[in-house]
Amino acid sequence: MIGIIDYGMGNLHSVSKALERLDLSYFLSEDPEELEKADGLILPGVGSFRDAMTLLKEKQQEEFIKTWAADGKPLLGICLGMQLLFEGSEENGDTEGLGFLPGYARLFKGKSENGEAYKVPHMGWNKLGFEQPEHDLLQNTEEGHVYFVHSYVIETPDKDVLVATSDYYQEVPAVVGRGRIMGTQFHPEKSSRLGMKMLDNFGKVVAEGSRTYE
To answer: What is the pLDDT of residue 208?
Structure first.
């Protein structure tokens, strides 16, 4: 069973509908005691990094998520939810993140190294390149296009956390992971067959984990 963390800023409807289409069992909750009953968690997100961290603290979800991750249970962050897995963000002033992965969210510069202006946010379909094709989320998939909407991009010194990348005038960490902590910068639920397969693969990781913890 997958628990979707409701902290007031997630794309809950679209993620829920995607899991239903995949016939994956799930529930929505903001209550850590209820979420503890899940076998895997999804941390969605749309909006401001600072606001998201404030809400996670107010709802006593931050420490719950940290304990969950420390126990090695599956966790998938989506869009802003992926950025929250890292050390912090400069959005609306420096804000500390959950700190599971090394890196920091920084605003796209809006101008390339050769002075070419480009649009921010990075919005629309862009191609993935696989860095770790053997990763659990990428099983039985091929490189293809997925749907992005974000103004801030993770910059990380640790290339080992990069599962797949895209390019938007700089390298964009698109799928990240370490152990059972995983994230997608794009919206898999809006990314057609490739994104849906990644969600299905996360469901398989959760199913394996539920057998492990029985």
So the answer is: 86
